[in-house]
Write a structure and sequence with these properties.
Layout (H helix, E strand, L loop, with lengths): L1 H14 L8 H8 L1 H21 L2 H22 L3 H15 L23 H9 L1
Helix pairs in contact: 1-4, 3-4
């Protein structure tokens, strides 16, 4: 799988210099990050809807589209697959392969764990 993603990434990078009228990938990259993000969100929605409807084959097709648009977004954002794999490895070491990082900590930090706010710097920011 990582080899497929790497080949796709290399292909998308190579398409960056192609004529947008001849290459859908070049056209998408030329449109910029907002358009790419919009397409990525559309594909994610399509995957979710097909999964909710129980359409296995469509989930497969739409997932491939989702991965393509994700890789296009990575290229646009300057993110390489190795960066993603490193983050996945880091998370696996911390939480296991099938867990996701929590949005909030399990335990609220105690006041002594929170660094004090430097008031002078905060006041200067408000004055700007």
């Amino acid at each position: 799988m990582t080899d497929s993603i790497r080949r796709l990434y290399d292909g998308v990078r190579a398409a960056r210099g192609l004529d947008p009228s001849l290459s859908r990938t070049a056209r998408l990259l030329h449109a910029g990050p907002r358009k790419i993000a919009k397409k990525l969100a559309e594909e994610a929605t399509e995957v979710a809807l097909e999964a909710a409807a129980g359409n296995r084959n469509e989930v497969i097709r739409e997932s491939a589209d989702l991965l393509y648009h994700l890789v296009v977004l990575w290229v646009e954002a300057g993110v390489q697959p190795k960066d993603i794999w490193a983050e996945m490895e880091r998370r696996e070491k911390l939480f296991g392969i099938a867990e996701k990082l929590r949005k909030t900590p399990l335990v609220e930090p105690s006041p002594r764990d929170v660094p004090p706010v430097r008031l002078e710097r905060a006041r200067r920011r408000r004055a700007r």
